[in-house]
Each structure stands twice: as structure tokens, then as C-alpha cells.
Amino acid sequence: MNKKFFSFLVFTALFAAVLTSCEEKEADPNLTPSEVQRDAIIAELSKNSNLSEFVGLLKTWDVADIHADKLTIFAVSNAGMSQSALKSTADDGVVLKRHIVEGQYSQTMLADSTQITALDGTILLITIIDGVYYVNGIEIGAEIPADNSIAYIVDMALRAKPVQRYCFNVYECNPLWSPANYIPYLPASDAVISVRDESGSELGPFTTNESGMFDVMLERGTYFYKVTKFL
Length: 231
Known about the structure:
Elements lengths: L2 H23 L7 H13 L6 H7 L12 E6 L1 H5 L17 E3 L12 E3 L5 E7 L2 E4 L2 E2 L4 E3 L2 E6 L8 E7 L1 E3 L11 E3 L4 E6 L4 E6 L5 E7 L3 E6 L3
Parallel strand pairs: 1-8
Antiparallel strand pairs: 1-2, 3-4, 4-5, 5-6, 7-8, 9-14, 10-11, 12-13, 12-15
């Protein structure tokens, strides 16, 4: 076999290998747009071992009733999965579809007070506090692109009920007050805030920040507060 013929065979083999590789990456033409996006998200989230339980649930998701070529998913970490009822799509509590929205919502589109609707009809409220993004009161991580879709990681299953921001400032008397030092009140940082809901269940406790502010996201309702400052 001469050198030129051998080189031709090697080139042909390499070309065939590249062609085969390209063919393997092509999407299955029998898949719907929603199935393509689901599989793209699964492939991306599978790179993070801390999302294995949520990925396993996504693999069972039947997208037959969904017709979307873009999705936004709030993927729950394994720790969050273990603390919630998010175990199967048939659960009456937290359900998978509450974590999925039709359309691609990048962080630049998620302004403060933005409302988006999950597949189960739950209204998801986006809030931004000190540059941190929250969805229904749960902090979300950076966006994870996946084909035409986007995923975010959350450490808790999303609440079903609407949430609201509750905040107020706590002050203490200034012991050094005088006519020359006319500052009667000072911000009470690290004050302990005990919160109870209408049923008497205790939430928290919470503490005020360095500015004396109590700032928290809670489900909308009536709450009772007790403020304690330890000196």
C-alpha cells in the first residue's frame, strides 16, 4: 500500500468519525419542542450531583400537554427535596409543575415584583432585596442556560401561597441623649424578633440587621411580633 493511498484511508476514517459524531448530537426528530427542552435541562442539571433527586423527577415528567419551545425551571437541591413533599408529580402538596414556567425568563427579565405563572397555576412572585433574587420568598441562584431554556437552583420547594415582604425598623433610646446630642433613638441591631402566625405557630426567630431593620418574606396573612433586645 503506497503512502498516498494510506493517507486517503486515514482521512476517510477521520471524516466518517466526525460525521458519526455530528449525527449523534442531532435532536431526535420525533421529540416535541417541550421534550427537547426537558431533555436539554436534564442534561445540564445532571452535571450537578446536588440536583440528582430533582433530575430524577424531571425524567418522569410527561410533557404531552405542554407545547413550549422555551421553559424556566426552579430546580430544588437534594437538601430541599428531603424537606418537602416534592417526591412525585401526583403529590397533593408541593408538585413538580409549580417549579416550571413556560417561557425563558433570564434574570434581566425578572424585575422586582414581577409575577410569572407556573404550570400548575401558582403565581410566582419575584422580589429583589439587596441584589438577591427571590421567588415566592425562596432565594434563587444564578441562571443556568440549557438550549432555549433556563434553570435556577433553589434550596427549598416553592410555596403554593402568595408571599409578601414584611419589614419595619426597631429603635432603642439613646442613653447619651442631651440637648447637645439630640438623637433620641438609635437603630437596634441584632434585636430578636419572635413571630407567630394566626394559628399560634412560631416562625423564626429573626434578628434585625445593622440598621435595625426586620426584613423577611412570609406568606400573606396576619402575624404577631415580639421584640427583644439583649444587652
